[in-house]
Amino acid sequence: MIPATVHPMLVHFPIALLFTAFLLDLIAIWRRDRFFERAALVLLWLTLIAVALAIVAGLYAAGKVLVTPTVRPILEAHRRDGLITGGLIVVIVVFRMRTHRLWRRDTPATAQTTRLQDALKPWYSSLGAYVLGLIMISATGVVGGSMVYDHGLGVAVMPAPGAVESAKPNKSPTPSAANPSVAAGKSLYASTCARCHGPTPPFSSALVSSMGAAAMEQFIATRMPPGNPVGATSAKALVQYFNSIP
């Protein structure tokens, strides 16, 4: 089973590779040096491979995390931006292959024999595609970071100080003791969910209300935990437990 965390691990590679390739191409134009131009082209092909893997991993991860109605439009925008970015990188590679052929034919091996203006001519379309691609990959990264850091998508909540103590059984009667389903959900959370989400559930009645109990039950029953979902009965108990949390 592939973990959803593969996507955030992969996304940094196309970003770093694309910016580095652009920098090497600028050096190649400035120095009229074929070595830097060839190195940048290799990095661009690696960028194309990396962005394809990141897109596939992102589409896979989107179905493995709990998405609230507030975050879903942001996730859809991130998916759209990622696909557009992938398309732009394909365009950059196509233009750069054309530039590579033109530059190799028209630019002498010695930098001093070619004026910068003449060396720059084959690069106009490639540089334009580069700029669009760099803007788009940066915007895609910003939206992805916002989902994680501003909205906590796919992030297990760290227990607050004293949360472990507060999670210990209380000798006094609790609301869950009066409701077998809530008690069952609480027990199931401790044995199945706490290892990823922490001893104190990061879910509450407000989340259940915003998602809808039926939708949340369906998601948990079929996807949580990844690879070994708990099923409909356990999901219902979990949602009832979450709904009991203020």
* Tally of discrete structural domains: 2
Content of β-strand: under 5%
Order of helices and strands: HHHHHHHHHHHH
Structural class by SSE content: mainly alpha
Beginning-to-end CA distance, first to last residue: 34 Å
The rough form would be described as elongated
State the helix count. Answer: 12
The helix content, as a percent range, equals over 70%
Low-confidence region ranges: 157-177
Rg over alpha carbons = 26 Å
Number of strands: 0
How does the major sheet shape up?
none
**Roughly what is the average pLDDT, rounded to an integer?**
80
What's the quaternary structure here?
single chain
Give me the secondary-structure topology.
Blueprint: H1 6-10, H2 12-31, H3 34-62, H4 72-106, H5 116-120, H6 124-149, H7 163-166, H8 175-178, H9 180-197, H10 205-211, H11 213-223, H12 232-243
Helix pairs in contact: 2-3, 2-6, 3-4, 4-6, 9-12, 11-12
Short précis:
Helices cover 72% and strands 0% of the residues. It has 246 residues and is mainly α.
Verbal overview:
- By secondary structure, the protein is mostly helical.
- It folds into 2 domains: 6-149; 163-243, Cytochrome Bc1 Complex, Chain D, domain 2 (Orthogonal Bundle).
- The protein has helices at residues 6-10, 12-31, 34-62, 72-106, 116-120, 124-149, 163-166, 175-178, 180-197, 205-211, 213-223, 232-243.
